[in-house]
Design brief:
alpha/beta; D-Maltodextrin-Binding Protein, domain 2; nine-stranded mixed sheet; globular
């Protein structure tokens, strides 16, 4: 029987073989130590370059977007205490929808007040006023009007009492009216002068619609005027008041909401009207306003 020759296992040979193996392993480790970090550095550099490009592109888009400033006046449920939080209300939802619909303009809300909103538009602090009506004191202010195709109404509200029905709203004489300071009402021929309203209609002027409605229950006022959208929102927040308050079938005024743009606004009336129509066609206007019973015209 033949046997294969055994390898030389002498000490010198073992040392020589061990030296060659150690040398090979050392070479491999050195190369891996050099190659892997280099690969990681190249990968990291590539990722950072791509990320920086994305950030730069996003920054450019934000920087290049044309800012349009919308005056935000307390007018619930459209705008609710904007000096505290401009992100609450239907106007904030509309601005967000406008921004999401296109990349050219960026709409931001700037808090203002009912009496100050005219000067803010004239002086360029704001570029437009939304949910306005040209008859509400804007006759002497240069502007372009865009019909938003949104319709709301001002209604009368009184406390429910035995024997009281809709005829209670027919004659306002001799009744104390709770009104919002600075608002223009049709029954007063849109005269918002405080003294005139107090002397002619015994008006109690406040800065809170909620307070005006609660005054009815406490007997401090006979009738309060609020928008239909606000009254529905109030009943959603206070369902117990539905049995205590009576809304009129009589309407003080039915109005279309407009956007009023100053002559030097960064967006033209035509361009803004086109954006609004885009939201109407997509159903966004219906989604935002229908829950508050604000009628949305299907097409202008």
């Amino acid at each position: 029987m033949a046997f294969l020759p055994l390898p030389d296992c002498s000490a010198p040979k073992r040392r020589e073989r061990a030296h060659h193996v150690a040398k090979a392993i050392s070479f491999r480790i050195r190369n891996e130590r050099l190659v892997v970090p280099r690969f990681i550095r190249l990968l990291s550099l590539t990722c950072l370059t791509v990320f920086a490009g994305l950030v730069h592109s996003t920054s450019l888009m934000a920087a290049e977007a044309i800012e349009v400033r919308i005056g935000a006046t307390h007018f619930p449920p459209y705008t609710i205490r904007p000096e505290q939080n401009v992100k609450v209300g239907l106007l904030a939802q509309l601005a967000q929808a406008l921004n999401q619909a296109q990349p050219v303009y960026h709409f931001v809300l700037v808090p203002t007040s009912v009496p100050r909103r005219f000067a803010d538009l004239e002086q360029g602090r704001t570029d437009m006023a939304i949910f306005e009506n040209p008859a509400w004191g804007w006759q002497k202010v240069a502007h372009s009007a865009v019909d938003l195709g949104l319709e709301d109404a001002e209604i009368f509200v009184a406390a429910r009492k035995a024997g009281r029905d809709q005829r209670f709203f027919d004659d306002l004489r001799g009744k104390h009216l709770a009104l919002f300071h600075g608002y223009h009402y049709a029954f007063a021929s849109f005269n918002a002068d405080t003294r005139f309203l107090q002397q002619t209609y015994g008006a109690i002027l406040t800065y809170s619609h909620d307070s005006n409605l609660y005054m009815l229950e406490r007997g401090r006022a006979d009738i309060a005027l609020v928008t239909r959208s606000y009254f529905n929102d109030f009943l959603l927040r206070h369902p117990d008041q539905a049995e205590r308050l009576m809304a009129s079938e009589r309407v003080d005024q039915t109005y279309r909401h407009y956007a009023l743009l100053r002559p030097e606004a960064p967006i033209s009336a035509q361009a803004f009207a086109q954006l609004v129509e885009r939201l109407r066609a997509s159903g966004e206007l219906e989604r935002i306003f229908a829950p508050y019973q604000v009628r949305v015209a299907t097409r202008l």
